Amino acid sequence: MLKNSEQKEQIEFIKNKLNDVKRKRDTLINAIENGSDEVSSIMKRISNYDERERALLIEQEKISAEPVFVEPSGIEIDSAVKALRDIITNIKNVRKIRILLQSFIESIEVFDDEIVINYLPERIVNAKAVHSKNEWHADMSLLRTKIMKIELPAQFWRKAA
Hints:
Blueprint: E1 2-3, H1 4-33, H2 39-65, E2 68-69, H3 74-90, H4 94-102, E3 105-110, E4 114-119, E5 146-151
């Protein structure tokens, strides 16, 4: 998922490439109209520019169709954390809690003095989730896994054997 500014930059870059391709193709067409002797060579180059233009238009369409990632505000994150805490503490079915946690936790590593939880925050808060359907898990994303480290109190440290 792209941020809004990144998406705009990529679209602008492609538009500039498209304008360059169109300008070059128009120059070649003008050369033919003005009586150039190398028509077959120019026609091959025009064909190449046409293919390049089609590829750029497809690329532009793909970027425009991608969902835009909007960074959640601190209030939204706090609200999501509270809601998640309420869900986890109120659900009596351990299997349901496990399924919920598996939807956003990548891994948990337990060390002598800390626990490291690797998770995907965009799977916790996702505006595209549809709550009226039976399945409304958040969409997969290309964002990096986040890490949360929990320092264990000394009483929980593992003792060397």
